[in-house]
UniProtKB/TrEMBL annotation:
SUPFAM superfamilies: Porins (SSF56935). Pfam families: Plug (PF07715), TonB_dep_Rec_b-barrel (PF00593). This is TonB-dependent receptor. The keyword Transport applies. InterPro entries: Beta-barrel_TonB, Beta-barrel_TonB_sf, Plug_dom, TonB-dep_rcpt-like, TonB_rcpt_CS. The keyword Transmembrane applies. It is found in: Cell outer membrane. It comes from Sphingobium naphthae.
Length: 749
């Protein structure tokens, strides 16, 4: 056992510089290390993390982390970030209008979106912070590993990490020629193809390129009004990298670029109660009955420059990145049709197309530039530290947003909103760890963030017949609004950890995190009870104790943590007339327990799982916007008291349990996920019921690098909603995917 640990340690030291500076939180040990350990004792391989921006054994880090390897992602068919909840129970993932990702960790997350509004669970791809919820919903291709860091990360990461982090690490280019190809076919006439190629192209210079294509030609349901299928989707992603390293491996420069395009007949927006016309949608529960077929078009692209240099006693890292995300959606918010109405798309905009029906049509664009500098001390000595700075510029806008609501439709009008907000954010941070003897560490960190936001916008009413603005606009319609303010904030981290033995470590921590304030540009031009223009910053004080263990000669890894959060200025969403707004609740109280288990009783069998219990309640919410069903259909939105009610989209219990068994060339894998349900609105009137998911695969290694994988997801065909909400139109929901299955052929070398 001692020899094996020495081999692993050498592997880590050799790659320390290449991983310590990265923001990605997990780096699984090299295959050589894992394989050596398998031969010696069939124990669980160590996982090296950079959750504190230096390479450390996950079991030594006083932070709760769930790490998912690329092998697990592939076996269970986890294709995008929304699927990660199946293997990380502390994470719950919902969507908004099909194209926005809304992750929650331990009850902390978002229900509302809009230009410039960032998620409180931060998403990082290869160290690059993704500010927009458009980018949070992303495909997982050419992945090395994914990790979920639980709880506020207010010092080293800081930017809107009040709930935690989802970190995605993609493969680095290698001098060794490497290739991986996959082609598959599944039900709903789904065709998939992916490829990854990497190798050296010059002295010390390596390159890689990855691409993935998926076309689901059949939809999951039908629009019974038009007769067309809904839920079909076509997606293409690609990423390329160039990496240069100096002869002495002291300097590394990596350039990355990526592009993603998604086109879908979604969201499948269906009322589940009588709407304002006192109608229910026709068809089955996976069908819709709408004036138009929904449309979703999403494009994302970006690039980064990563420069690292090791001076010996310290290492320096610079990470520069640019990203742009665009989402266009069009759908019918009332979810039913009138036989004497017709929708005729406009040739150059919405003018002719908005003559009839209730239609929402929005284009949101989010653009960002980030620059981070890190300086890290070496691992020698009792005191280790990291200092750095972070700058972010971002711009979010409607370009534009259109809507026809229940009142304007009767007189042939529609509204158009053109609004935007920009952000300039500066932050400086420092964190240090001091060894108090051989077994105890004390960590303290501090971050100061200064945000400046500027916003402007105008809402006008147009004639659907002519496409021209009305000559007379009732103020504030037609009047441009302008806002500007600064939002400074200090956050921190304190922790102490103690190793009782080589197998057992305990820790306690106190963290403060915050989610940036923002302007609600969707409300510009409105003067109603829901037309607040500014969101206060969300503040969390988080207290946590945890235990990390490797037991039974490293065959059982059991990590458990208990937490208590005091959350202020919770950001909450409400929809009126198809317009989504976000406002603040005074505060919430959250506490619970989560645990991860990894068990390898024999070399051929691996069992892994997790459980999370979260008690998340509003401790003060007297201005809650609640909905009351009307006897004639639809809902009345009024102000009520939701104090003591459950937070939206937060299940009390989640559980996952997976296993993988190798029988020679055949590997059988399965995963079970349980969610006990969650409320969709502040007064908890509308709820998603408990549901269970079962995924499985059988992989055949054919030799010579070839393989066949037979897979299935949601094998019990459980029905549940990925989005659920109440508006004045009706209670409505967007269905999650039904049972899918298929076969994938692979070849790699």
């Amino acid at each position: 056992m001692g020899n094996v640990r020495t081999m692993c340690s050498k592997s880590v030291r050799k790659s320390r510089f290449l991983t310590a500076g990265t923001l990605a939180s997990v780096a699984v040990l090299t295959p050589v290390c894992a394989e050596a350990q398998d031969v010696k004792d069939a124990g669980i391989a160590e996982i090296i993390v950079t959750a504190q921006k230096r390479a450390e054994n996950q079991q030594n880090v006083p932070i709760a982390v769930t790490a998912v390897s690329s092998d697990t992602l592939e076996k269970l068919g986890i294709a995008d970030t929304s699927d990660l909840k199946n293997v990380a129970p502390s994470l719950n993932f919902s969507t908004a209008v099909g194209g926005f990702g809304l992750p929650r960790i331990r009850g902390v997350g978002s229900t509302g979106v809009g230009p410039g509004i960032e998620n409180p669970v931060a998403t990082y791809i290869d160290g690059v912070y993704i500010s927009s919820p458009i980018g949070a919903l992303t495909g997982l291709s050419d992945i090395e590993q994914v990790a979920v860091l639980k709880g506020p990360q207010g010092t080293l990461f800081g930017r809107n990490a009040t709930g935690g982090l989802i970190q995605i690490t993609t493969r680095k280019p290698s001098d060794t020629p490497t290739a991986d190809f996959r082609i598959g076919y599944g039900n709903y006439q789904t065709v998939t193809a992916s490829g990854y190629v990497s190798g050296g192209i010059a002295h010390n210079l390596a390159a890689s390129i990855a691409a993935k294509y998926e076309n689901r030609d059949d939809g999951f349901g039908t629009n019974v009004f038009t007769g067309n299928e809904i839920g079909a989707q076509r997606q293409f992603t690609t990423r390329g990298k160039l990496r240069w390293e100096s002869d002495d491996a002291a300097t590394a420069i990596q350039i990355s670029g990526d592009y993603a395009d998604t086109q879908a007949v979604s969201p499948a927006f269906r009322p589940i109660s009588p709407n304002v016309l006192n109608q229910l949608a026709g068809g089955g529960r996976r069908d819709i009955d709408s004036d138009i077929d929904p449309v979703l078009r999403s494009k994302q692209y970006g690039g980064s420059l990563d420069i690292e240099h090791d001076f010996g006693s310290v290492s320096l890292k610079s990470l520069s990145a640019y990203r742009k995300m665009r989402l266009y959606v069009a759908f019918d918010p009332d979810g039913t049709t009138e036989s004497d109405w017709a929708f005729i798309p406009g040739a150059n905009g919405p003018a002719a197309g908005f003559a009839h029906g209730y239609i929402i049509q929005n284009t949101q664009i989010d653009e960002q530039f980030t620059q981070e500098i890190q300086l890290l001390s070496s691992d020698s000595g009792p005191f280790t530290w990291v200092v750095g700075g972070f700058y972010m510029w971002s711009k979010g806008l409607f370009a534009p947003g259109y809507s026809v609501n229940a009142f304007q439709n009767a007189i042939g009008l529609y509204t158009e909103v053109n609004s935007q907000q920009t952000l300039n954010s500066f932050a400086g941070f420092a964190q240090g760890t001091y060894k108090l003897g051989d077994a105890t560490n004390f960590t303290a960190g501090l971050r100061y963030t200064h945000d400046k936001r500027e916003a402007s916008g105008v809402r006008q009413v147009f004639s659907a017949a002519t496409g021209e603005p009305l000559a007379v606009q009732t103020p504030p319609l037609g009047v441009e609004e302008n806002y500007s303010d600064t939002f400074p904030r200090m956050t921190w981290r304190l922790s102490v950890d103690h190793r009782f033995s080589p197998e057992v470590m305990a820790y306690a921590s106190y963290n403060r995190g915050f989610r940036s304030a923002a302007y609600v540009v969707a409300n510009f031009g409105l003067e109603t009870a829901l037309s607040n223009k500014v969101l206060k910053p969300e503040i969390i004080d988080a207290y946590e104790i945890g235990l990390k263990t490797d037991l039974f000669d490293r065959r059982l890894r059991f990590n458990v943590a208990g937490y208590y959060y005091d959350q202020k200025n919770v950001q909450v969403m409400q929809i009126r007339n198809g317009i989504q707004t976000v406002y603040n609740a005074d505060g919430a109280k959250i506490y619970g327990i989560d645990a991860d288990i990894y068990f390898r009783p024999v070399p051929a069998l691996t069992i892994n799982g997790g459980v999370n219990w979260t008690h998340a309640r509003y401790k003060s919410f007297t201005n809650a916007q609640i909905t009351i069903p009307n006897p004639s259909g639809g809902n009345t939105i009024t102000t009520g008291d939701a104090t003591g009610k459950r937070l939206q989209n937060v299940p009390d219990w989640t559980l996952s349990l997976g296993a993988s068994y190798e029988m020679g060339p055949v590997t059988i894998s399965a995963n079970y996920y349980h969610n006990d349900g969650w409320p969709a609105d502040p007064d908890n009137r509308l709820r998603q019921k408990a549901y269970d998911l079962v995924d499985a695969s059988v992989n055949f290694d054919l030799g010579g690098g070839a393989s066949v994988n037979i897979w299935g997801k949601n094998l019990t065909n459980a029905f549940y909603f990925q989005q659920l909400g109440a508006s004045n139109f009706a209670d409505n929901g967007v269905q999650a995917n039904p049972r899918t299955y298929g076969v994938t052929l692979g070849y790699s070398f």
